[in-house]
Amino acid sequence: MIHAYGNQPDPQLRKAIWQPGGALNYWHLSNMLSASEADLDNMFDWERRIYDLFELGEVEMDQELRKSYYDEWQLLNAKYLPVIFIAKGMDLSAAQNTVGNVFQTEQGVTVFTPYTVFKR
Questions:
Q1: Contact 55/12 with Cβ under 8 angstroms?
Q2: DSSP secondary structure letter of residue 59
Q3: How far apart are CA 24 and CA 20, in angstroms?
Q4: Has residue 73 been placed in a domain?
Q5: Residues 46, 105: one domain?
Q6: Fewer Cβ atoms within 10 A, N terminus or C terminus of the chain?
Q7: Domain limits at 103?
Q8: pTM score
Q9: How do strand 32-34 and strand 118-119 relate by DSSP bridges?
């Protein structure tokens, strides 16, 4: 099964995915009373802690303290809900320096046409 979890650097921006009881939290769907209301009584202790960490992080202005909330969330998530993240760039290419007629732009994009490439 493949899910797209987004590419946001701030977990709060994907709260619906990571916070138990959220509309996109797929791991324990019975934590939802409705699309917008979590069933706090049905959560495991660690799920409730994750729920609370997201609530705390949402309003915390001290970046160090806020980071500590998300660090704890990541530890709990790794322990109880292991997920293997797979990332692939949109355009991956490479060439050895023994290949001719292959160039790299200033932006790092490899440019070539297969029928003009040759071995040096």
A1: no
A2: H
A3: 9
A4: yes
A5: no
A6: N
A7: 91-120
A8: 0.65
A9: unpaired
